[in-house]
Amino acid sequence: MTTLHAKVAVVAGATRGAGRGIAVALGEAGATVYCTGRSSREGPTNPKRPETIEETAELVTFAGGTGIPVRVDHTDETAVQRLIEQVRSDHGRLEILVNDIWGGDELTEWGKPFWELDVARGFEMMERAIHTHIITSRHAVPLMRDGSDGLLVEVTDGAFHGYRGQLFYDICKASVIRLAYAMSVELAADTITAVAITPGFLRSEAVLDHFGVTETNWRDAIDKDPHFAHSETPLLIGRVIAALAADPTKSSRAGQPLTCWDMARHYGTTDIDGAQPHWDEHLDAAIEEILRSPSPSPDDLLLLKARLPQLDFDLTRAKQRTQMDAFLARNGDPGPRQ
């Protein structure tokens, strides 16, 4: 079991999803975790979701750590400064910072080319998903530099250099990868390792609700989407981050975009059910099967169309990309991604 006893962490965006899983896993390893976000029992800001930072903090404590909820709007620099001053006052140090603030799902306009997008919505997404990460790191890193052996994690979606299907979404997810790299360069003389990491197909609370299942019976949704069989709970990326935080050789990965599936295998980390889903291997196998099909379904063609630009600049998949191009040309354009 990974040991992070006496370590202090801030998980920015810990209300739900990957952020909650990361906070709980750090608690499972014995850390003290400040769980931040806007949704609180004192007044939730998201009427569509019931989760709160207080619930996350309780789960952290139940898992074996110490959970501390702090309501913070990370677009507010003054509020972030107050958070870091609270950590400094309470503990005098900070070893782990995880930037997982997103909030862009409701703002993403899938299926539209960039010249038809709502610019105001796109800029709001960038404020939530990029500006917050910069603000938080700006004020947390000076406290981390006062200590030693720190870890700064940028949570993203996909470790590839290709396109993610929508301009503002792509900018946000690619930008935090670049943030991790840029910060790693400036932190080279410090004992702080900055990385980016992506989960696979995440069984977040919202995804479970979308499929009409719970974590107890999630496999019932596989009939609706076969890819769901290769999904993972938010706890898996949290356990991977906990293992990375405890790794004395983690600095060798500074600046890199990492994947939950590769790192889980590296550390021998498993999900709650003991599984180690590998999203890239699953997608590669699914695509190979589609390419052998004489009559692909519309969903098959949409998967190929969505995956194709993700493989741009990936020389290891150049042959697969050529095959996909030819297959789509033969079988027609499935239309815009929905």
Structure, explained:
This protein has 338 residues and is an alpha/beta fold. The protein is built from eleven helices and seven strands. It has helices at residues 17-28, 53-63, 77-91, 119-145, 167-186, 205-211, 234-246, 260-267, 279-291, 298-307, 318-331, and strands spanning 8-12, 32-37, 66-71, 96-99, 150-155, 192-198, 257-259. Strands 3-2-1-4-5-6-7 form a seven-stranded parallel β-sheet, sandwiched between helices. Strand 2, helix 2 and strand 3 form a beta-alpha-beta unit. The chain is globular and about 65 Å long. The model has no long low-confidence stretch (mean pLDDT 95).
* Level-1 CATH class name of the largest domain: Alpha Beta
Give the strand content: 5-15%
Number of strands: 7
Output the CATH homologous superfamily of the largest domain.
Answer: NAD(P)-binding Rossmann-like Domain
What is the total domain count? Answer: 2
The helix-and-strand class reads alpha/beta
Widest β-sheet, arrangement of strands: 3-2-1-4-5-6-7
**Within the CATH hierarchy, at the fold level, what is the topology of the largest domain?**
Rossmann fold
- The topology string of helices and strands comes to EHEHEHEHEHEHHEHHHH
Helical stretch tally: 11
N-to-C CA distance: 41 Å
Are there runs of 5+ residues with pLDDT below 50, and where? none
Give the overall pLDDT as a whole number: 95
Nearest-angstrom radius of gyration? 20 Å
Shape: globular
Reported CATH architecture of the largest domain? 3-Layer(aba) Sandwich
Question: Major beta sheet, specifics?
Answer: 7 strands, parallel
DSSP helix fraction: 40-55%
